[in-house]
Fold this sequence. Notes:
Blueprint: E1 6-10, E2 13-18, E3 24-30, H1 32-41, E4 47-53, H2 59-67, E5 70-76, E6 82-90, E7 93-98, H3 117-120, E8 124-127, H4 132-142, E9 149-151, H5 162-168, E10 174-175, H6 179-186, H7 191-200, E11 205-209, E12 215-219, E13 222-227, H8 240-255, H9 258-273, H10 286-316
Parallel strand pairs: 1-4, 1-8, 2-6, 4-5, 8-9, 9-10, 10-11
Antiparallel strand pairs: 2-3, 6-7, 11-12, 12-13
Helix pairs in contact: 1-8, 6-7, 8-9, 9-10
Amino acid sequence: MTRADLWVLGNLTIDDLVLPDGTTSMGLCGGNAIFAALGGRVWSEHVGLAARVGPDFPRSNIRRLEAAGIQLALSEVDAPTLHNWALYESADRRRFVEWLDSGSHLEQSLVPGEVPAAARLARVCHVAPMPLEVQSRLVRFLKPRCALVSLDPHDEYIQGAEDALLDLLGLVDLFLPSRREAALLYGRDAPEEAARTFLRRGPRAVAVKLGAEGSLVCGRGVEPVHVPAVPVVALDPTGAGDAYCGAFCVSYGQHGDVREAALHATVAGSLMVERRGALGVLPFDTDVTEQRLERLRDRLKTKRTETDRRCAWITAN
């Protein structure tokens, strides 16, 4: 059996999208597990996904994931799939509202006994946003069994549980919050200060996702660096952060380089926002992904060179 680069543990959803201009797209395939797995799949052929699945989740979506080369470990439950309205005011301002007959996060979230053996052999096992109690059980189960454990928190479960989440950072290798989640956990909106603080709690690397502004990443022995977003026309921002996480995990697991992981992650996120729904990103265009990676790498090099020149000028004067 080939060792997987990434296994994602998370949720499947059905999303009804309402964009700022009033455009709607109904019944889209979604869920953090799918977005993250596809983000990882951009850069690796060896990606797996574990999640619970309800009887109302379209089986055609499952077949498309399998056709894309995603290894699936789905635990069937007799409960409705998570069904959301995704309401956007702008790319960075949104609200998810659950349908009245939607399943609950606890009903649709994995327990440790549902984690497949293949996931424990992966280079990285990523715990996508779920209730904190669920994430905590999964992280504690995975830590002694997996090479690297990655965590992306859920913004709805941080307030009032800050200490518990901070304690959990000592058990994860990669911590990948959004700007909002970082601010909730740190106490204010200061991404660089927050990233440094989180890193001191134990992870090897921290990436704070900044939406259209890109991301800020740091690691052990690596000072915080801002990685800009890839300029694209965004049709649907849903899942871009999850795709970022999946790609970050794959690259970091392969090379252990924080900056390279952020570059690969940023490209994956850019691909996701150009289409509607998680499956819209398929099939991947490898020429486009490689071109974007090289351009972004060049942009970051240019940015670092300009920063070094400014620092040298200040020192000299």
